[in-house]
Amino acid sequence: MLYVILPVHNRKNVTEKLIRSLKEQTYQDFTLVLVDDGSTDGTSEMVTGYFGNVVVIRGKGNWWWGGSLHQGYKWLTKNKVSAEANILILNDDVVFEKDFLQIGIEKINENPDALILSQDYDSVTGELLDSGSNVDWEHLIFSNAKSPEEINILSTRGLFFKMRVFYEIGGFHPTLIPHYQSDYEFTHRAFRKGFRMLTFPELKLKEDTKQTGIRVRATGFKGFLQSHFSKRSNYYQLSWFAFILFVCPWRWKFKNLYKVSITHRYIGIPILHYLHVLREKYFLFRISRNSIKKSATAFSEYQLVPNQQSSKKTGRIEYFYHFTIIRGVHFARFIGWASDPLDPKIPAKIILVVKDKSEVLGTLKHFKIKRPDIAIAQDSEKLKKSGFIGYINTGVIDHLNGIEFYAISANGKEIQQIEIDRIQQESL
């Protein structure tokens, strides 16, 4: 038996597309739990017109996403649904093929100890939007997982799992995390309890991205208040604090509580930026005075290539006007690898990309390769155990003349100019 939890709110036309997809499914042994949070456009009536076995839970418009899912959880537990029953959480802005439910049921029965996310594609462009995510707690960075092993957090858009997950970890936190972060908190809690996070290419749906998200549009002081103290906002302070408190490892908890605070965003970040600018000016002053050393190591076969995360590939605007430095590798997943030009005992902290000894075009930061096995499989000689990654703004580059690379030691005292054997530039 499958229980489909579907939160809705005043999107009758959008919801109807999903309902039609459900109606056409080859697998029909499911109960639809419709959580209607105060719709006034006849959404519930439309849905019940398609299905007879619909459980309608009505709210007053103040449940939001996390609260709506929690209402579904409460109904399931109140009715003592079997721990082996299958659960599916759906957004109303998706559609899928006729065998979607059948595939999902097969996958969750084969992997009863897992949460399985449907791979999410843009309904217009066909671009893969989500196939599992990874949260790096040390730096509080959320990114698409590069491999199944990296997945430690999931959205709830097309999420299959056994009812035992609800019984073992509980529901949601509608008061503290009413909307954004509610899905991440729930799935990461399950991950920490030992449940696996999985996706499968054959289990997929299509999302209408025009309907996704809620935008806070006010500006000025009113915009500031709405951005940080409105449940409609992704920056809602209470949700972020609760999210960090509930699931962040203790090692990074206090650091990340500060990171999500207003103090960090409006005071800490500007101060750090100002100090960064001053530091760059200091390095440029030394470079212009030739207070540097020549590195004994040269970077050979360097390339300036288009960033594979550009809007042409992902449909997003970040990094569109940037090139990425790479060395020796031509595959998107390996962007940013380079060998260390300084003494391995005193590795470089950063590499400055400078034009005409007067302008910093970019900063490449030191990092360690996480998958040396893949590196060795590609080219063990060219790929080292450490390197640098970063982006160069190409808006000011009309040619490569005058561009130089300078390695800065960890203590900031040593500056070495890196000799370049060869540089190529490929057009976008």
From TrEMBL:
InterPro entries, sorted: Glyco_trans_2-like, Glycosyltransf_2, Nucleotide-diphossugar_trans
Q: Which residues form the Glycosyltransferase 2-like domain?
A: 4-135
Supply one GO molecular-function term.
Answer: transferase activity
Cross-referenced Gene3D superfamilies: Spore Coat Polysaccharide Biosynthesis Protein SpsA, Chain A
Q: Which superkingdom, per the lineage?
A: Bacteria
Q: Which UniProt keywords apply?
A: Transferase
A Pfam match: Glycos_transf_2
Name this polypeptide is given: Glycosyltransferase family 2 protein
What organism is the protein native to?
A: Leptospira ognonensis
